[in-house]
Amino acid sequence: MWQKSYSVVTKDVTREQMWRMWSDVNHWTAWDKSIESASMDGKFEAGNFYNFQPKGSSNIKIKIHETVENQSFTDLTVFPLAKMYGKHTFEQTENGLRVTTTMTVVGILGFLWRKIVAQKIVDDLP
């Protein structure tokens, strides 16, 4: 298993605002310049899928694995002999809202998918 996290604390937004922004997959390209395209039909809820294309890469179909409204969501990308989870949490602290993304790769070929996909995602998180 491989895992990396990145957190930032801000007083500029609320958990509800972050949730609205993240759950609106069709508008991710407006605020994340590392994304070529992102689209989803239906609700932002566990079991649904969205299409995601980072700049310079191919389109990936990603499953929403778990959601807790205004608190967190986890997505799941399935690769041959590996899985990648992206957990996104919004935690209110006395210093502001802590937004954390944790990428986890598991499976026999996890080392390969970490190099090909996950490390690029982690490098773009800041």
State the gist of this model.
By secondary structure, this protein is an alpha+beta fold.
- Taking pLDDT < 50 over at least 5 consecutive residues as the criterion, the unreliable ranges are none
Mean pLDDT: 94
Helix content: 10-25%
| Order of adjacent strands in the largest pleated sheet | 1-7-6-5-4-3-2
Give the CA-based shape: globular
Structural class: alpha+beta
Report the span from N to C terminus. Answer: 22 Å
The number of helices is: 2
Largest sheet geometry: 7 strands, antiparallel
Number of extended strands: 7
Our estimate of the beta-strand percent is over 45%
Oligomer: single chain
Rg over CA atoms: 14 Å
Order of helices and strands: EHEEEEEEH
List the helices and strands and how they pair.
Elements: E1 2-10, H1 15-23, E2 35-39, E3 49-54, E4 60-68, E5 72-79, E6 82-93, E7 96-106, H2 110-124
Antiparallel strand pairs: 1-7, 2-3, 3-4, 4-5, 5-6, 6-7
Description:
By secondary structure, the chain is an alpha+beta fold. Helices cover about 20% and strands about 50% of the residues. The chain is built from two helices and seven strands. It has helices at about 15-25, 110-125, and strands at about 1-10, 35-40, 50-55, 60-70, 70-80, 80-95, 95-105. The chain has a seven-stranded antiparallel sheet with strand order 1-7-6-5-4-3-2. A hairpin with a 3-residue loop joins β4 (about 60-70) and β5 (about 70-80). The protein is globular, with a radius of gyration of 14 Å.
